[in-house]
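Data availability (excerpt). All sequences and predicted token strings are deposited with the supplementary files. A representative entry, C4-type zinc ribbon domain-containing protein, is shown inline so that the format can be inspected without opening the archive.
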Amino acid sequence: MKAAPGAQKRLLDLAGLDAALDRLAHRRRTLPEIAEIAELTTRLGRLATQIIAAETEAKDLARDQSKAESDVDAVRARADRDRKRLDSGQVSSPRDLTSLQSEIASLQRRQDDLEEVVLEIMERREAADAKTAALVAERDEVTASRDAAADRRDAGYSEIDKDADGTGRKRDALAAEIPGDLLALYTKLREQSGVGAAHLQAGRCQGCRTSLPIAELNRIRTTAPDEVVRCEECRRILVRTPESGL
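Structure token line:
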């Protein structure tokens, strides 16, 4: 393939713009906020599970407390009825009187036990409610942090996209000045190795950093300036300039 030396030199500028676009794309993919948002999102998922568990525990305890309080009320009501019978003097038989007094004492013990159960459940419920509140507060804090990270990420995207847009326009304008066949070869090589053209500088390919053998340099030295030469090692287009050491 043949191409004017000036057109070949433009490939170095094109490669520089492509490298800049690659760096911008890499920067966009690796913004620190992306990893931060992912970590915070994972934390929010764990917190959501923990909040559901804590809320479920609190609801179960509220139901247990309600049942225990109902049991206390039932025992208290029965004991009150027995006391009224006892105080009314309706029970005259010593045997029935003893039995009634025994039942009242038994009901009092039962009430005391049930009230202890209610108190224990209340304490556990308060702990569950406090845990839920703490988890919800943590969730809100993490959500705010994630939102802030998303704002920073989007600002980073905007800045990078603006730079990429400007660089891309320069790249398109430059590519339009390069002959189609040379540009097609450059594009093909770029797709294969990431870099389509490299500077031959001081006898060294700046693409693969390989110093060319003397015989190869002598061959290139005798090659016509408009002949497109390639690096034998990496197969990239070698662009010759006064700094090539030929």
